[in-house]
């Protein structure tokens, strides 16, 4: 019976064209017609894709397109997760190293403070650093006093300007005292003009001192701070290596000692590099300080002397000699737009 059913299925009459004509198709004819249809219209990729086993092959060789797309999205998601996980691990390692370094440096700092630990000292360099800090404090005092002198002297010049304007007005309204008021008005205007010239010289002096103190010296002190931090780290890892060297020498301990030796060498190189940088900067700072202060002190002396001696010509020559440019009257006042 089974053989009969198979024989009928192999020779079944079915439509073979669009007109409804029928004919007998064998299994080979059916396969050939299906292949021709695929070659003409192409496979329906929206439904299935044949990846193995051929047409009409086993069901395991046919994978839905949606499954392929889902697999691609899944792979992209896995790649993103791996990148995120890698960044997180890197940050965790960075925090771990920072924590270990902070612990070692804090331990070394307290050991030095309570006299239980040793520290690396460069006596000559430490002396130069102390001199620089003391010099900076004194120059800051000069800067503060010179700024106060400018403020007080500017008030005096403004008062002289107002007094001269008042004398001029009274000379026009008091005919019987016109000459007397006129003389005093001219004197106050001359003093005001010389006062503005002196203010320009002192302002130039203050500006140069401010650059020297708050930029040049401050830059060197920042490098010194980095050097001191490197010195503390170097001593911390040096002490750690010395403690490990006094302990047991088994295999695990030797691995830790080798790692500590590497960390020690890294921080030693950093300490020596920054020490060299500080030495060079201190040398150039000293040369620059002498050059700047020689010029500015000479300017300050000549301008003050010429003003109080009433020597207007010498005061003007001093400004020209040191290339001091005076600001036009009223330039310090805010503009109308700024006031709004």
TrEMBL record:
GO terms for biological process: intracellular protein transport; regulation of Arp2/3 complex-mediated actin nucleation. The keyword Transferase does not apply. It is found in: Golgi apparatus membrane; Golgi apparatus, trans-Golgi network. One of its GO terms (molecular function) is phosphatidylinositol-4-phosphate binding. Residues 16-25 have a biased composition (Polar residues). One of its GO terms (cellular component) is cytosol. Its main location: Golgi. Keywords: Coiled coil, Golgi apparatus, Membrane, Phosphoprotein. Residues 1-27 are annotated as: Disordered. Residues 120-320 form the AH domain. It holds the Pfam family Arfaptin. CDD domains: BAR_Arfaptin. The keyword Phosphoprotein applies. InterPro entries: AH/BAR_dom_sf, AH_dom, Arfaptin_fam. Residues 257-288 form a coiled coil. This is ADP-ribosylation factor interacting protein 2a. It comes from Seriola lalandi dorsalis.
């Amino acid at each position: 019976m089974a053989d009969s059913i198979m024989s009928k299925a192999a020779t079944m009459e079915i439509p073979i064209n669009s007109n409804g004509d029928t004919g007998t198709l064998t299994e080979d004819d059916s396969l050939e017609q299906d292949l021709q249809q695929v070659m003409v219209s192409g496979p329906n990729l929206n439904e299935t894709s044949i990846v193995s086993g051929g047409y009409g092959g086993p069901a395991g060789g046919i994978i839905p397109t949606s499954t392929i797309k889902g697999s691609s999205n899944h792979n992209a998601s896995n790649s993103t997760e791996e990148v995120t996980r890698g960044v997180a691990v890197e940050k965790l390692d960075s925090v771990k190293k920072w924590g270990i370094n902070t612990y070692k440096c804090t331990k070394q700092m307290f050991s030095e403070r309570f006299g239980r630990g040793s520290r690396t000292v460069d006596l000559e360099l430490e002396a130069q650093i102390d001199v620089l800090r003391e010099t900076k404090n004194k120059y800051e005092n000069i800067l503060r006093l010179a700024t106060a002198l400018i403020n007080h002297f500017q008030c005096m010049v403004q008062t002289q300007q107002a007094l001269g304007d008042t004398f001029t007005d009274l000379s026009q309204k008091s005919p019987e005292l016109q000459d007397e008021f006129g003389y005093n008005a001219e004197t106050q205007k001359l003093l005001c003009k010389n006062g503005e010239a002196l203010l320009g010289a002192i302002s130039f002096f203050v500006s140069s001192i401010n650059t020297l103190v708050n930029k040049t010296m401050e830059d060197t002190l920042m490098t010194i701070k980095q050097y001191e931090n490197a010195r503390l780290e170097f001593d911390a890892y040096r002490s750690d290596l010395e403690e490990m060297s006094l302990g047991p020498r088994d295999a695990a301990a030797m691995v830790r000692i080798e790692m500590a030796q590497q960390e020690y060498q890294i921080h030693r190189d950093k300490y020596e590099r920054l020490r060299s940088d500080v030495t060079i900067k201190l040398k150039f700072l000293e040369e620059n300080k002498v050059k700047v202060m020689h010029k500015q002190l000479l300017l300050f002396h000549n301008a003050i002397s010429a003003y109080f001696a009433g020597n207007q010509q010498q005061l003007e020559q001093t400004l020209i000699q040191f290339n001091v440019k005076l600001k036009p009257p009223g330039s310090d006042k805010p503009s109308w737009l700024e006031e709004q």
